[in-house]
Amino acid sequence: MNKKQGILYGVGVGPGDPELLTLKAVRVLKACPVVAAPRTREGRTLALDIARGAMDLTGKVLLFLDFAMSRSERTLADTHQLAARQVLEQLAAGQDVALLTLGDVSVYSSFCYVMDLVRVAGYETVMIPGVPSFCASAAALGRSLTEMNEPLHILPAGGHLSLPEALALPGTKVLMKAGRQLPQAVAELERQGLAGTSALVMNCGLPDQQLCPTLHEYQGQTGYFATLLVGKPKQGAN
Predict the structure, then answer these.
(1) Is residue 174 within a helix (H) or strand (E), and if so which, with residue range?
(2) Strand order of the sheet with strand 172-176?
(3) Would you give the DSSP letter of residue 103?
(4) For the CA atoms of the chain, what is the radius of gyration?
(5) 226/178 Cα distance (integer angstroms)
(6) Beta pairing, strands 8-12 & 97-101
(7) pLDDT, tens digit, 9 for 90 and up, residues 186-224
(8) Is residue 193 helix, strand or coil?
């Protein structure tokens, strides 16, 4: 008889508010004996904190994964390999693992790199979607992300496109994880006359959430969990 292999579940926990976990996410977390959580260099485990706000994780085996905050492809690949090895040890022992992911598992998620490695090793993986930060940010601001027949662009701040190139795209632009580049991004939006139609959300769904319905309210804050929603210029604006 073949030994049972564990299944890896990627569980999106949303951007911060525990009430945004889906019923399916809670069900999977209850069923999995092992919960894997990303951990920062400072020891912070935000995704785990969010999950704990939604349910009792007492009795679960907690597996902490140290993902590097780096732009080095080699460094990132090494941390993904290490995380995959930690997960595979549990799966080989027949334990199902729920790997927590901020926001949604398919949007700029470290889970997907681990998932690919686990699949190559011959194990089953399942993705449980979560609420993306930009959708929660739009809801917190009370504004729509799209209009009829207009596109929506989701872009990482500091990605391959320069900021002017990104802002030249049609429709609404979402700039995620602005971090230290936030002041420069706001300055460029102001220069292009977009400050009045663009908004900023810091730490969406967390106790220290900050909302700037327009960038005229921006006071120079910075932070990794910053989402910019860039609207069209007002008609008649220069």
Answers:
(1) strand 172-176
(2) 152-156, 172-176, 226-230, 198-202, 210-212
(3) B
(4) 19
(5) 6
(6) parallel
(7) 888 999 999 999 999 999 999 999 999 999 988 887 777
(8) coil
